[in-house]
Amino acid sequence: MTTTAEGRRTIQYAIDPGVVSLRGLSPQRLRFELEYALERGSTANSVLFEAGDGCPAVLVHPPGAAYRDVFLPALDEALGGKIQPLRVVVGHVNPNRVALLHALAETGHALTLVTSNAGAKLLKELWNQRKPGAPGQASAEPSIPEIPPLEVIRHEDTLTLAGDRELTLLPSPTPRWPGGLLAFETSLGLLMSDKFFSAHLCTSDWAEANRSSTEEERRHFYDCLMAPMASQVEALVDRLEELDIRTIAPGHGPAIEGSWRSLFSDYRRWGERHQKASLKVTLLFASAYGNTAAIADALAQGVNRTGVRVNSLNCEFTPADDLIAAIHEADAVLIGSPTLGGHAPTPIVSALGTLLSEGDRSKPVGVFGSFGWSGEAVDLLETKLRDGGFSFGFDPIRIKFSPDATKLKELEETGTRFARQLVQSQRRAQRRSAGGLSESRSDPAILALGRVLGSLCVLTTRKGELSGAMVASWVSQASFSPPGITVAVAKDRAVEALLHKGDCFALNVLADGRETEVMKQFLQPFDPGADRFAGLTLEESPSEQPLLPQALAWLEGSVKQRMECGDHWLIYAEVSHGGIFDAAGTTAVHQRRSGANY
Hints:
Elements lengths: L8 E8 L2 E8 L15 E8 L7 E4 L7 H11 L6 E5 L5 H11 L4 E7 H11 L22 E4 L3 E5 L3 E7 L9 E5 L4 E5 L16 H16 L3 H11 L6 E4 L9 H17 L3 E6 L5 H15 L3 E6 L5 H10 L2 E5 L9 H13 L6 E7 L4 H12 L9 E4 L4 H29 L10 H6 L4 E2 L1 E7 L2 E7 L2 E5 L4 E7 L13 E6 L5 H9 L15 E2 L5 E2 L5 E13 L2 E13 L8 E2 L8
Parallel strand pairs: 4-5, 5-6, 6-7, 11-12, 13-14, 13-15, 15-16, 16-17
Antiparallel strand pairs: 1-2, 2-3, 3-4, 8-9, 9-10, 10-11, 18-28, 19-20, 19-23, 21-22, 22-27, 23-26, 24-25, 26-27
Helix pairs in contact: 4-6, 5-6, 7-11, 8-9
């Protein structure tokens, strides 16, 4: 077995005679994209149906180039070391996947790439494409093999496999993966779902133990990548429920055997909030190398935190009528583009023209994009929209190549602030129409709820280069043994992203009479990416969490559970350390008139 310096390797599972799963394991975070932010490693799952009965071998959903050095030897072993015809079902197309296909094409196997109609278009565009080098600099990349023959699946179709098996192929286009193609083997009831139902989690177990064991990872994956296209995802789930599924083998994470119906229900439930949202942001983008898509994902994640719905559209594959309808329905529009050869791609230029002609100037816009050596595409978007009379919700975002973890957090916070402005504008309009009265604030139950008191605290956390803080008053002791606490964290808080299972934080309990200055620091509006601790003198807990010496006492905890509670997450943490700064002081308490707000 080959193992890389990063600890990556590929293991095999015999699913059934003639059917082998090849799972690439990566214990470390692969990329900076938000989907990997839990930092629990990942897997890349492929399935090989061996040759026989005059049928060639079929490889479903090969991994990306990061697994090349461990995947190709494992595939060679699974094929018995024989050079032979090989059909490769390409579940989605991106530069990382194409780089692996380049290496596979050089192994000598007679490849046929099985792909959707949109996937074939992307393969042709990306196959001979090289990442841009510095102006005038020759590329150092090796020569590119000739593209293999393409077998295009335009509608649902079936491939005949060895052993009287059949493989149903289902095109599954979405804005994020327009070339999506799922595969279902009927005799095993095995759905190879590629990106859908995935979880970034490094595990050698074939299947999850139960739904709760991977729920947080699958929910995080959904929120990062699926939520901006919730309507398309729900339509796909409806179609998949018609299949006689017994096992789902997603592209990342363990298989789902006994609880796939529960997972389908989760996907519907997670998407329901987005579908019912009263405010909508239309997000238009194109992405040559995935960098602009990563920016779009981070902005969308930030917007989604506020309960505002994101409607994500890939301009290259969106019909003109759908684009016009999305712009008309939107309360705001974000548009992003890479810069290719000093220009914006043609689909973005066309979408920009549609926005200029159909967009409402009273609704805010935002522009973003990635670039290699110049950023003309973002300049074009900004200039045309400003000249067209549009107002901007944030300064144009220009990122060279791909965003790192710190930049992704800043982008997420930018999306949250942008959406909060929309929500606040809507509330002001609603108050004006209601004559300034709020029914909920006069509800006796809401007034009574406000009499529930909480201690005033500041929650602080640091995770690598990232840090965060917030004032917390919905805090309670939750258990004696082990000692535990709960903290309610609003979904739109930036710090929420740093409070997943296994993450550490400190709770600084404020002292009565000395809480005002500390609260001013953390209640002020922060710019996206700003250091919440600037100008403060800090101490550290044993796990290097920030402590405020002005506090009365402190606790350090590790998150063990998260429970979704309406517009908040309830975080349960086991306390590992703590201390008293002021033994003579008393705890500051938050008095409220109403339970309708903090």
